[in-house]
Amino acid sequence: MNSLKLFFIVAVTAMxxxxxxxxxxxxxxxxxxxxxxxxVVFGMKSTSNSHAEVPGGGGSYSQLVCCTGVSGLGxxxxxxxxxxxxxxKTTNSHVEEGTLSNYANPVCLSAGAGGSVSVGYQxxxxxxxxxxxxxxxxxxxxxxxxxxxxxxxxxxxxxxAATTLTQEHFNWxxxxxxxTPGAALASLDTxxxxxxxxxxIRLRMNLGEAGGTLAASSQAFKLQxxxxxxxxxTDVGAPGAAVAWTGYNNPTPADGSTIPSVPLLVASSSVAxxxxxSNPSIVNPNSIATGTWGDWDWTLQQNLSGGGATNAxxxxxxxxxxxxxxxxxxxxxxxxxxxxxxxNNVYSTTTVSGAVPxxxxxxxxxxxxxxxxxxxILGIAPxxxxxxxxxxxxxxxxxVKADAANLGNPEASGFGIPTSDTYLMYGASNDLWGTxxxxxxxxxxxxxxxxxxxAGSFSSNISVDHIRITVYYSTPAxxxxxxxxxxxxxxxxxxxxxxxxxxxxxxxxxFASSGSLTSDIxxxxxxxxxxxxxxxxxxxxxxxxxxKFQFAASNxxxxxxTxxxxxxxxxxxxxxxxxxxxxxxxQIEIKASCYNNKRxxxxxxxxxxxxxxxxxxxxxxxxxxxx
Length: 627
Hints:
Blueprint: H1 2-18, E1 28-32, E2 39-44, E3 52-53, E4 63-68, E5 80-87, E6 95-97, E7 105-111, E8 116-123, E9 131-136, E10 144-145, E11 152-159, E12 165-174, E13 192-196, E14 200-209, E15 221-226, E16 234-235, E17 245-246, E18 271-276, E19 293-302, E20 310-318, E21 321-325, E22 348-352, E23 361-365, E24 376-388, E25 394-401, E26 404-405, E27 422-425, H2 439-443, E28 448-454, E29 460-475, E30 482-490, E31 498-499, E32 504-508, E33 514-518, E34 522-523, E35 531-540, E36 545-554, E37 565-567, E38 572-574, E39 588-589, E40 600-609, E41 617-626
Parallel strand pairs: 12-31, 13-32, 18-19
Antiparallel strand pairs: 1-4, 2-3, 2-4, 5-6, 5-7, 8-11, 9-10, 9-11, 12-14, 14-19, 15-16, 15-30, 17-19, 20-29, 21-23, 22-29, 23-28, 24-27, 24-29, 25-26, 25-28, 30-32, 33-40, 34-40, 35-39, 35-41, 36-40, 37-38
């Protein structure tokens, strides 16, 4: 009801201001003294019983018939147009309907290419038309006024050509903290490759207009992705969202800023549109006319290609070890604790009463969990299958961490101990029992749960048949190789009229931060050994990556093989030092004195990167030595 009230208040306000409610793309005409954003059709000396003049007729008439609401609207009497009135003179003139031919000075409404406009005359109202332009006292030799001055109304309808938007060209770039992206990742209309999880990239793409004109501030857009141009399509997520592709929040440029018009990076673009960090974009800041292309800039982050973390659970698993433990201060002992390892109607028992109101802990451990080492623990949910002989005995369950019951955070089932075997449930998929957990904690043989029974008004024999636990956790998504395609749609979900090209990227698993390779044994065939001189490699070593070597020599294929590098601080070779070239084809000296006179030689190569989207590449290693 409140939303309906708000709607009517807004509608009434619009009528008071405009004299009629205009819809988007609908022609609207009013009589005003200023028309800065509309089209002046004619001028009047006053709003009633007035003479008229053509636009700019020289009479300086202050009452202007101003029309707006349709892209491409004009007052030309050529092209696609309709006569509104004919005037006897250019100013201080009587008027007649535009359908007559007594007067030689027409005033007109015109539409842009592909648009339409019509004018008619009706008594009393303009039903069936978009707007009332004004009114006249007779069909000819008439005075003119605003919409309420006379009974004979001047009516008009107009429409712009339907827009025809086509997704056209694109370029991929590295990200930069500015409205202008970094270096190109590929040439025009070419897929970017080698994009790893976590990488932030920029997409410049354009939309072409082939119908009418997409008016400025008229349409917002969304960016979507898919693994096939046939879909299914998914909206690019907000920064941090758990989908394969998200927006990215650069610190400096404001989301929705208009990109620089010089240069427009996609070659065919002619209009600068918006820089966008999250869906949907702002409405287009500039109009896109027929035959032109608007250039958009999207920031994108590859979210490990797997759609965020994966939630999972393990269990319920049964306890393997059950003991009686008095750490809680209870006094009733549990008998045959190991009977609680399975649900078989063979019980671990105790009795609680007014004299012995609280049991020891029945502590269950050794559940045999194997939670992955990269998991995040989300929740722990123990269950105890139990019954008692009294209807008012109660229960508490504790979580055991490192062999100690977490006594500060016990939980009750809320139902008390039933009189027939029932699993009482504790915790939840999001309950961490007031502490933090690692996979190592859960997988430990000393992780578990401890059960306590408490007496009510009556003595009760308590029997526990089984204790089990379910653990809930999440694991990060793993990167995957694959191709992703992108498209823009209108923010309301409507697809564009055509898609000539789909920007695409090829993702790959992130490179390992480091690795090594040990060469085969190189037999120099020199019985008295050789003296190594230098080593270099051929390949590629991008910024933030490195390649280094160690060297070993022996007179036996069985070794020993001690890989060392030169330490200039000690003027000796040691296992902590390396031979580090500055790049491909950069020859570096090997200290022959450390390896002299050995027949067999080997090298060990170490590759490293601090940017997992880049890796050094070694195609060939060249080792020089002298007999």
